[in-house]
Amino acid sequence: MAEEQTLKRAFAEAPPAVLERRGGRGGDRSLWVDVLGASSVLAILFALYLALIWAPTEAVMGDIQRLFYFHVAAAWLALGPSFGVVAACSALYLWKKDLRFDRIASASAELGVMFTTITLVTGPIWARPIWGAYWTWDPRLTTTLVLWFIFVAYLMLRSAVDAGHKRARLSAVFGIVGWIDVPIVFMSIRWWRTIHPTVIASEGGGLAPDMRLALFVAIGAFTLLYAYLLVVRVRQEDLATRLDRVRHQLYLR
Amino acid sequence: MGFLGQAWTIAWKDILGELRTREMVFSMLLFGFLVILIFNFGIEPGLRDEALVKPGVLWAAFVFAGILGLNRSFSSEKENDCLQGLLLCPVDRAVIYLGKFLGNFVFVLAMSLAVLLFFSVLYNVDVIAVLPGLLVILGLATVGFSAVGTLFSAVSVGIKTRDVLLAILLFPVLVPVILAAAKSSAFVMNGEGLFAGGSWLAMLVVYDVVFLAVSVMVFDYVLEE
Question: Which of A23, A149, A156, B167 has a Cα at 20 to 30 A from A132?
C-alpha cells in the first residue's frame, strides 16, 4: 500500500518525458494478437469436435484412443517448437545481447514445461489400459521425461538468479547445452527395443484418413495456442520490464 | 607457453591445492563408498539380474560422488577473490575452462579408481581381469562428466542455491553418459569384451567431443563479469 502511494505521488510529480511510452513495444493491445487468440480458441474447439465426435472410434482400443490427438499435438510442441525457440533465442541473446530474446526464451520454456507435462500425463492414462502399464522405459517416453527435467532445470536456474543480463547469459548457456543434449539422449535410449507406436512413418503409418485429419487439426490448433500464449507471455514480460524501468527512473529522480 | 601448457598450469594449481589440503577427493571418496554401501541394502543378494544391476550401482556412485567435487571446483575460487585473479590472467577464457576441466577430470578419475576397488571387493567383481576395458570406459565417461560438469559448475557458482542447483542442471544432461557407461561396463564385466558394446563407446566419444566443443565455445559467456 505504501509503495502504491509513493508510486502515485511519483507519477503525479514526474516530468512527462518519463511517462512517455518508449518504442511502443509491448504496449497497447494490438489487433493481431486478439485475432491470434480468437483463432486459437476456435481451432481448439474445432479440434475437440473432430477428435471427440467426428473421428471414428478406434476398433481395438475404443474411446481412450481419442486422447492420442492431444497427446501427439502436445508432444510435437514440447519436442519441436518450444525447445527450438528456447535454443534459438538463447543463441540470439548471446549474439545480440538483447534481453527481449531472453524473455522469449523464458516464455517458450514455460510453455515447453506445460506441453511436456500434458504429454507425460496423457501418455500413461492411455498406456494403462492399452499396454497394461502406466510407464515403460521406452526411448520416446524416457526422452520426454528427461526433456521435462531439462526444461524444469532451466526454469529453476532462472528463478535462482536476479533478473538481468547475468540471468540471461547463464540460462542461455544452459538452454543451448540442454537442447543439444536432447537428440543424444534420444539416441542413447533408442538402443533399447521400443514399443511406442509409430503413427506417422515414412510409409504413411497405421492411421485411418479421418483420424489423420483430426490429428493434424489438433496439432495445428495446439500450435496456434502455443503461438498466442508465447506472444501474451512475452508482452507481459516486456511490460514488467518497462514498469521496472519507469519505477527505477521515478525513484532515482 | 602453449595453449595446453597454460591449461595445465591452472589444472596443476588445483591439484597442488588439493594435495596440500586433501579436503575434496577424500570426501568424494567416502561419499562414493557410502553410495555403494547404501545401494547394497536395496539389492537382494542372489537376485536373478544381479549382474546387470552392479554396473548401475557403480555409475550411480561415480556420479553422486563426482558432483561433490564439481560443486567445489568454482566455489573454492570464490575465497579471497581467486576467481577475479583467474579471470585477470592474460589467457583465453577457453584456457581457464580447459584448466578447470583437467583438474576436475583428474579428481573424478582418482576418486573413481578408488571407488572401483572398493566396489570390486564388496560386490565380488573381479575388476583386475577386465581392468583395461573398464579404464577406457571410465576415462571416456569422466571426460564427458567433467566437460559438462565444469561448465555447469561455473554457471552455478554465483548462485545461493548452487549445490542443489548443480545437481538439478547436471543430472538430466548427463543421462547419455550414465546410460552408455553403465551399459558398456556391463558388457565388459560379463566378460564379453570392450567392443561388444561398441556403439555405446561411440556414443561416449560423440558426447565427449560435442560437449567439450560446445563448452569451450560458450564458456566465455558464463564468467563474463
Answer: A149
Interface predicted TM-score of the whole assembly (ipTM), two decimals? 0.88
Q: Do A188 and B211 touch (CB under 8 A)?
A: no
Contact A107, A227 (CB under 8 A): no
Going from N- to C-terminal start, the domains of chain B cover: 3-222
Single-letter residue type at A130: I
> Can you tell me the distance from the alpha carbon of A25 to that of A32, in angstroms, rounded to the nearest whole number?
14
Residues of A in contact with B150 (CB under 8 A): none
Q: Tell me the C-alpha distance between A169 and A171, whole Å.
A: 6
Cell numbers for A155: 526454469
pLDDT in tens, B100-110: 999 999 999 99
Question: Using CA atoms, how far apart are residues A174 and B18, in angstroms rounded to an integer?
Answer: 29
* Structural contact between residues B30 and B118, judged by C-beta atoms closer than 8 angstroms: no
Residue A185 to residue B176, Cβ atoms within 8 A: yes
Q: Using an 8 Å Cβ cutoff, are A155 and A109 in contact?
A: yes
pLDDT, mean of residues B20-48: 83
Question: In chain B, what residues touch A174 (CB-CB under 8 Å)?
Answer: 152, 155, 169
Domain borders along chain A are 33-243
